[in-house]
Amino acid sequence: MVETSSGSIRGFLDRGVPNWRGVPYGRVGHRFRPPEPVVPVERIDARHWGPVSWQLPIILGQTPSTVSPDATESENCLNLNIWSPDPNPDARRPVLMWLHFGSRAYGSGSTSTNDVWHFAARHDAVVVTANYRIGAWGWLYLGALDPDFKDSANLSMLDQIQALRWVKENVAAFGGDPDNVTLFGLSSGSSDVAALLGAPAAKGLFHKAALYSGAQPPMAEERAARFAEDFLESAGPLAATPADLAQLPNVGLRTIHRRMLKQATSKSHGPAMIRYGPFVDGNVLPRSPLESLEMGLMADVPLLVSNVTEESGAWDAWNAIDTAYLRAFPEHDQSLPHKEKIDALSELIWVGPAKKLLAAQHKGGAPVWYQQFDYAPSTNWRTVLAYPELANRPVHGADVACLFLDPEGTVGSDEDRAVGAQDQAALLALARDGRVPWTPWTPESPAPHRIGVPAD
């Protein structure tokens, strides 16, 4: 039992490590509105996963498969999970808080491929994973269509800030140090961390940041407004106004998403995705995060940024490289070798934004480190679960398998665990000491540090 601002919560032992699941940190009082404070209760049974946000496909014909088949989907999903070696309030261990991947449309804080247990069991840290609204529930901005919804901007970010506030207030009771919180994420979760680096309301709620394959900048307000227009237009007879969308059953919002996905796929003559995400709204994000970082907003936050060697290679699973390259570079020679197209797309979508983030945070006065993950784990979830054609390639998401691999376990190969130890050591050094054990990135020394099997 641990006393928190949500109530007395009862956990259990997960493979010998104290664990609390589904702990509410806030609540959704109304759809398309900011989160509200949690209503405390006397006692909470925290031995079971809490609800996850509604899950949406990002490619037509595919169903998200990263959450448990028996997971409860709900827009009222503001809950988190905590692991601690020992809930001793005097311990003040480093705290790691994870934001999950999933193109901001699927995934959760309880996704099985992200088993954070070993951070507490092997690395003596308190680790937190969070659920928050995603898809239309967290990212659909209706303020440009109806001023009554002007506070609907960047709701998922507000959920995440609410979770960080809860951690700040309560993590000491779990043996964590509220003044030493490292925020980390991968892919869309990483881009969420990048956005939070530009959010004044998040300042002081986390103290280090690690981004894995995600630093895409927020969109402009005009694009967010146009997306809302397209969403409402795709509703057809289901909804005619933003107020109708606010009252629509959840399955209705999912139906509209699928319609948009079908329309986008038809127009692109190939695989297409619906992109949700933050925008510069003047409040949660008063300006571009890059501008805020250059001005020193997070000058006291050391930053680790990571890319994999072949980021865009993951699109080979959908035979989408040629289509994506044509869409991104319509004026270029389309007969380029396949590998060159992958490299160009990787630079445009992942590597280029990562370098800009590094440069902005460095200019703002914080120490920054850059790494390249150059390894294909045998336990890569993409290849094991669905895409064997990506085996032996360090594509987008491959590093998940090493970052969350138990270094003392039996899963994976000795090589997997050795590379995982490198990846984890960098993150834990950042969390404990505020620095990574290699030379920081600078404009004069921009080469990344390689994570992988030592070269012969």
Description of the molecule:
- This protein is an alpha/beta fold and 456 residues long.
- The chain has a single domain, classed as 3-Layer(aba) Sandwich (Rossmann fold).
- Helix content is 31%, strand content 16%.
- The chain is built from 13 helices and 15 strands.
- The protein has helices spanning 117-121, 135-139, 155-170, 188-196, 221-234, 242-247, 250-268, 289-294, 321-328, 338-363, 381-385, 400-403, 414-433, and strands at residues 2-4, 7-10, 12-14, 17-24, 26-27, 36-37, 43-45, 79-83, 93-99, 126-130, 176-186, 208-212, 303-308, 368-373, 449-451.
- The protein has a ten-stranded mixed β-sheet, sandwiched between helices. The chain has a three-stranded mixed β-sheet with strand order 1-2-7, with no helix packed on it.
- Strand 11 (176-186), helix 4 (188-196) and strand 12 form a beta-alpha-beta unit.
- Helix 5 crosses helix 7 and helix 9 (321-328) packs across helix 10 (338-363).
- The longest helix has 26 residues, at 338-363.
- The mean pLDDT is 94.
